Input
Amino acid sequence: MKRTSKILELREIIALEKKRGRNIALVPTMGYLHRGHLSLIEQAKQTGAVVVVSIFVNPLQFGPKEDLSRYPRDLERDASLVKDAGVDILFHPTVEEMYPRSVITYVEVGKLDTVLCGATRPGHFRGVATVVSKLFHIVQPDLAFFGQKDYQQYLVIQRMVSDLNLPIEVCPVSIVREEDGLALSSRNVFLTSEQRQEARVLSQSLNEAERSLGAGERSAREIEKQLRDRISSQCHGVIDYVEVRDAGDLSEVTTIERPVLIALAVKFGSTRLIDNKVVEVENYV
Ligand code: AMP
Output
């Protein structure tokens, strides 16, 4: 595996692979890798492309009161994990390498970035779209892999690629979960054992919401109420949002008759967890 923190060196390595006729697949991450990230890497490898993993904790997507400084990092552990996973190139730039000057050029994906996580994390998706756009220009991938754990992020990137005519196929990857249902996240390490136990309610309540839909419930507000009641009665977490929205464009839904995203964010102490489920009502008609 080749690894570099330098944009110029990465460009040279990639130019060589492109000259050989190879496709390039990019898996952008913030590191502290787990099985969720490895699943993205596996899918990328299955395409036969040269797999590039980037590890960069992007300051631009963290708000001033968020957890940038305490975000977990372990580059050497990550490097050995991606090497074992058969990754071809690891790109781990410093903040100075990515942002040598103060940023005055941003990529903003309107509408999609103001709801759900965008409502409580203003500027977050602008930071994500900007850094992913930079990575796309640096790596020039044919394919890019994004987890559905961050479903809104996936939609934002897909829309950016479409609106800006970027020649990149955006590939979604299903959520990888612990045995008890908790979605894997680098932030799970911050949970106390009690919070870790309680956090099971997130996936359990999403499953219950899906069962409710299966049983004929079609009111988005009623589904949200059921979720909220279950979460607040079964854990000490503080709900940030619980919402049912259109799975294609995140628009508001009153009566559920097309595929919906059931999404939630809950804070356990200072650790904010997100989870979601996409439900196709057609399956239940
Ligand atoms: P992060 O390092 O948290 O920014 O995540 C990097 C990529 O991995 C993003 O596309 C995430 O959606 C994806 N990812 C993170 N956790 C999971 C998970 N549990 N299952 C699937 N994909 C994930």
In short: The chain has two domains: 2-173, 186-276. The pocket of adenosine monophosphate is lined by residues 29-30, 36-37, 39-40, 146-147, 149-150, 173, 175-176, 183-186 (CB under 6 Å).
